[in-house]
Predict the structure of DNA repair protein RecN.
Amino acid sequence: MLIDLKIKNYALIERLEMQPSPLLNIITGETGAGKSIMLGAIGLLLGNRADTKILFNNQEKCVIEGVFDIAEYNLQDFFAEADIDFDSTCILRREITPAGKSRAFVNDTPVTLDTIKSLGSKLMDIHSQHDTLLLGDTGYQLNLIDLYAGNTALKEQYGEAYRRYRKLEADHKKMEAQLAQSQKELDYNTFLLNELAEAKLQPDEQEELEDQLKQLEHAEEIKLKLSQATQYISESEFNVLSGLKDATYLVGQLIEYGEHYKTLKERLDSCAIELADISGELEDAERKTEADPEKTEQVQDRLNVLYTLQRKHQAHTNEELLAIQADLEEKVGSVHSLDEGLAGIKIEMEGAFKQVEILATQLSESRQAVFRKFESELHGLLAELGMPNARLVIQHNTGAPTATGIDVISILFSANKGAAPQTLSKAASGGEFSRLMLCVKYLLADKTALPTIIFDEIDTGISGEVAVKVGRMMQQMAKKHQLVAISHLPQMAAQGDAHYFVYKDDRADRTISRIKKLSEEERIREIAQMIAGANPSDTAYQSARELLAL
């Protein structure tokens, strides 16, 4: 519950602080005094967005801080997931700088706006006139039924199953589109792949063929020069090899004159051996070199195949062609794997849909089981609030699974005897809407885990004895939930355990909104003024005392 609220530099509020009662707190004050401004500040504390226009003094930052007792609310897991230190006393703080920068803190730890919003939703429920209008929304109505039926866990389970099914469905559609596109390209890619495969490409083939073609095209020149080289080395009258042998013999005769000559002779011997080997290889190469027009044509044809494929695929080497071939193999193969994957994901999707149907049926049965009880309890509560002839009927249909299940409901309402129930937007006045929403909140009070509920003029459109009963109903709710109610009715004001008065202070050069907790005498005077105006009579004072004594 909220144990302390501080608001600084917000709109008309220079500085405000209150420590609400753990039971029913009533806030009164003239229109425009600042009650709604307080709600705006609390909304900021709970994660609403803001700008610098809300600053009372645009030279200072706005600070809104709420201290909550959360010892009984089992929020340890939330704090652990958010990486925030847990304490039974939780402090939420929002700061808005003059530059427009917003910061949020939980227990002095900086957090994101989403984090403080998520935590705030577990600590407070602000019911405004807008929420009353929401009662006419069918989605909101379905959520009320789920809260009343205690479907939170089942609804979360269904939601997870439905999200899984929708993801599989999206994946299936995406894969179908990929397969359709791949199948369009399959024939062409298969043709290209077969063409490359038939070519039986080898990584270094092109360079080898180009060298081979050069030799074939210049065979006669190569043969002539090889023959001439062999003549010079070993076959002419004055060949190199004969001269080298003579030189080796002469140097060998000098060995007895020094070790140096021995080394020289050995080197000449090595040269003779190497030169003889070279001569043999030259002779062998010359014998093998022959002009071969047929072979030349074969090599040219093979190179033409390679060059044609390279131009077609905008490649420069066989290595690039082989990379393209591998890519085509992957594309063609992917069509088959996509087909298999599509079949697999379809089976998985169908299984997920069956799970959705099972959970949707369970959720629907749980909802339908409480329809009559929900209607009956609301009838009784509305009768207590001066609407004995009110009729409320839940119209129910089922359809295809959606994010909220298979149920489509509409709450039909009639406030008058003999009138056929219609949708709430057509059948209920503002006051009737307010009373109906209060009854709904009353029914849900035992079924929700909201520690603090704030009502913003829930008593709109009621008066007299009905207002007294509304106040008593709220007193009953306050036994399990801390309530804060903004009201203009003296009957409501008299039911509070604590009474706060919001007023404008015009004594300085600027209007300031202030709040104070009323003493018993101040409370009597305020309620008397709410009954009879600024100058209440003795009768109004007596009526105020009687209301407080009820």
Observations:
- Residues 318-384 form the longest helix (67 residues).
- The chain has three domains: 1-130+431-515, 177-338, 519-549.
